[in-house]
Design goal:
By secondary structure, this protein is mainly alpha-helical. The protein contains six helices and no strands. It has a domain at about 35-120.
Length: about 130
């Protein structure tokens, strides 16, 4: 009888600890689906950031960088979250098609903003 009570107490404690652990790692107000989506977008941010870093290191032209960015799956997933100012820079770069510019630097800054927004452990304050 004492052993059975011990098992029940241990199981109850494990369930309570799991619930507290889940609440501690899940930002308030987010479902598991929403948290999974934020994690996916956070990973896409990492992909775009690596592409921007490579473009900066290789002194890639705006036109080439923009082509590379738009070819990545991360671009389609992140495009609804891009700021209006950055979207305008993208359209101007597509129209001009010249120079080794600041587009990759601007992209890196924009992606860092999005990474902060989608960080799975951050709270839902944005």
């Amino acid at each position: 009888m004492g052993t059975a009570a011990g098992f029940v107490a241990a199981a109850a404690l494990a369930i309570i600890m799991q619930r507290f652990r889940r609440n501690a790692t899940t930002p308030q107000g987010l479902s598991q689906h929403e948290l999974g989506e934020r994690r996916r977008l956070f990973l896409f941010c990492s992909d775009a950031k690596v592409l921007a870093d490579l473009a900066i290191q290789r002194h890639m032209s705006d036109e080439h960088f923009l082509r590379q960015l738009r070819a990545q799956p991360c671009y389609e997933a992140l495009s609804p979250y891009l700021s209006e100012a950055f979207t305008q820079k993208l359209s101007r770069a597509a129209e001009n098609g010249e120079g080794k510019s600041k587009l990759a630097h601007a992209c890196r800054d924009e992606i860092e903003r999005l990474q902060h927004q989608f960080r799975p452990s951050s709270s839902n304050e944005q």
